[in-house]
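User: Structure tokens for this complex, please. No commentary.
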Amino acid sequence: MSAGFSGLNTALTALHAQRRGLEVTGQNIANANTEGYTRQRMDMQAVAGTPVPAIYSTWNGAGAGVSVSDINRLRDGFLESRGRAEHANGANLAEQQNVYVRIETIFAEPSDTALQSQFADFWSGWADVANQPGNMAARTQLIERGAVVADGLRGAYAALSSQWDTQRVQINAHVVEVNTAADAVAQLNQTILTSRSAGLPQNELEDQRDLHLMKLAELIGAVGTYREDGTVDVSVGGSTLVSAGSVRHLEATGATRMVDQATDRVRLRWADNGQPTLVTGGRLAASLDALGDVLPGFAGKLDGIAERLAEVINDQHELGFGLDGTDGRPFFNGSTAATISVAVTSPQELGVAKAAGSLDGSNAEKLAELSKLVDGPDAAYRSMVVSLGVVSQTVSRRADIQARVSEGVDALRSADAGVNLDEEMTNMLTYQRAYEAASRVLNAVDGLLDTLINRTGLVGR
Amino acid sequence: MGMHIRSTQQSIAARALTGLQGNLNRMGDLQERLSNGKQITKPSDSPTGAVVSMQLRGEIRAQQQFSRNAEDGLGWLGTLDTTLTSSLDQVRRVRDLTLQGMSSGVAGSMEAREAIAVEVDQLREQLVTLANTRYLDRPVFGGTTTSSTAYDGTSSSYTGDDGAVFRTVGDGSKVRVDSGGPQVFGEDETQLFTVLDSIAANLRGEPQALGTDLDRLDTAIGTLQASLADVGARYNRVEQMRQKADDRLLALRTELSDVEDIDLPKTIMDLKLQQTAYEAALAATAKVIQPSLVDFLR
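Assistant:
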């Protein structure tokens, strides 16, 4: 038999271990709804007897109780990195969808009031003037309708431009967020490293770091690589953002107005060496794309439409004579969406007649017929709206599908790492019962010792 | 223990929430469609549908314009028609008077011929007024003149130009809606007003020359009649084109509605189904989320 007091110690280790188990269960239950919390599990290990045989002292008893070998954080690293990749994709597509939805709102087609209808009103204005070349009301109305079309083009351009500005400001804010999150990861790396070497618990710190990593993935498609020592390296486009405790910062450079972006494209670069940052994922990639290609692309198409409108109308209008007998006057000034305006100031100046000094309306008729032009401004506008619709629909579908995929992975992650209350309740029961049983063991050993100490050697008393 | 996917209260709740949200989104979508009656509210709802809808709208505007042009053309041609009809009446009356003057002969009383001549003068004046008939302030026989009359009030010479007024009443279909004064009232010695001047003068001074006048008057009447027939034919054509434009408008509106508008019974059915599905999902979620082991432990 083992030494008399070892039984007490065995029971004591059990009491300690089971209480620790209850504490872990309590922590899990407390954080059942905490975002990013990973359930923890206590690993116990039976303490064996002395493994080394000695000459005078041998051990022939059972083991020496139980010890808590570790508090594990039950998170699947593979699922986590997949989750980050899917979230990066999702954030990228969601931002793209945002951009296109806003552009669609700018054009607001199809409707009875948007640019297409304004064009139609403009063309029928010419037809009305052709019907009544001498009618000042019809002429004035036509000039107004021309102004509405020019306003519509300028308005759409201004709206694109203001969306560009918003997006540009957002980039700066996102870059600050990236830098802050990277700082946090580096700092947590350092803390985890220290507490690990000191044997302190770091599970909650890792949870926090994972939250920051997810944020970095969503913002800029950052990829994390775990190291043996418990720290994590983060890279963006193949370049290091965080390495253990050191961090590199990003900054946004480039145009601050849409008109300047063609020559000074908005980019991200590394603050330390000024090298460009390759951003291929996350929300920032979509934002940069919107700033560099999408919004300027639509603005360019609008410019093309405005230019074509001014060109076809002016060419024909210059052939017509006004009521004052003068020809060769343009109808529109400017040839970009931002600058187009009506040049004609008085109804007398409209080039309606094919000859001076008559109330002929044939030139106005010809202008009205320009609406049918296959390569006219109307057709160009329609084709722009269709291409917008197609791209927006595709992006929107891809974003929806990606959202499903992300949700699926999130469900798996939450199922894997989340707290199941039934399980915790069961564990709680187990630990409680084991604690009770260990107390009994303590009682029993105490009883034995009592017998030994107080009741032996009393023979014949 | 067999392989199974672990579930947690959170993951069940998250999945249930996703499902419910999807349900609610679809309901919102259907409700939006029902409330605005459109199934395409932005290009991405259906890019092809959106462009068809834009094209149809453009086409509708064009047909509306054709219809308006035709209305205006009918105004011109109607004015021409009534003017020419009453002109013909007046001219026929002149012809009767001329015959009367001729039959009373040289022997007839000077006073009687003077009375006829006075009436011819009055008729001539009325005819000049008719020739200066205006539609929306434009002399209908004056071409594209900027002046307000087609014939000078005193000399009765043509003051209009040789321009023509056209209305586009269909794709590539232009119809002339005015008539040039010279084509209607003749030119040179057979110009109606010259003939009438001559008749009045000859009634007063040289009744034997009335025979020539009568021939010329008949030529003028012939021209007027031909013009009237021509105007009638053009009126019919424009009327037909307007009818065609109106028919096409109706067809286009139906097409647009087919493309853009919702199928009301179907959408209402869909919404009802969606509502039922949503309620079922809510009930199921409430049942699934509620119980846990906590409820059953003492």
